[in-house]
Amino acid sequence: MPSVRAGEVELDYERSGSGPPLLLIMGMSGTALTWGEPFLELLRRDFELIVYDHRGVGASSRLEGGITIAQLADDASRLLSALEIDSAHVLGISMGGMIAQELALAHPEQVRTLTLGCTYCGGPDAVQPDPSVLQRLAEAMMSGDRERALRTGWEVNVSPALAGDAEAYAAFHAIAERRAVAVPVVMAQLQACMAHDTSTRLGELAAPTLVIHGTVDEMLPVGNGQQLARLVPGSRLEVLDGVGHLFFWEQPERAAELVRSHAAVPA
Questions:
Q1: Architecture of domain 3-262 in CATH?
Q2: Model pTM?
Q3: Which residues share a beta bridge with 16?
Q4: Domain range annotation of the chain
């Protein structure tokens, strides 16, 4: 992928497809590849996609020290400016959804529509994952056993129905092997997510907003999507029954259609 100067960092990015611009903001420990080709290919029919790697990931600039969600939102804003895109539809998932919230709050003129997937706004009413889920992930990541870390990451990010799908896991594994994210970067991203709190500011959001959340999301339980929908004026909540955190892996056709219809792209 090419890279572009976005403020103080270089960001690795890719543009593909045709139509109105759609900026995709990936979550914690993910890369531009983690969206999965089936989902991206569906979106390319209707949008010009802009996918990128956060600082510390892939060929983007190294992460020096800690990071905040607001800083990552500034990176996204500067990426759009560097690519001479005045405004775009924005889809953010998980940590990327937190970044998308901050982007829309700080730079509303750059956001045409906002889709927030499997994410949360933080604050005292946020619904935290079961401690056992975080313990499993932490133990797997710190074990030094990459296979264990990948398998555990897969299992807690998808529904039980998909977790045992050997073909789906093989595709996920191949993507992770192509572009690994260093543990210190993941930990810095985790700290940024834990500090994230837009709960008292979401009433300021002006962009048309769609919230998507799976009912069996172990990473960020569905109550967080319900809270977002309550706090964002005029937003719409789409709950996917029996779907885990990576809803765009489990239901790529449905996820792509939701983004398309929300952006009001003609069928």
A1: 3-Layer(aba) Sandwich (3.40)
A2: 0.96
A3: 49
A4: 3-262
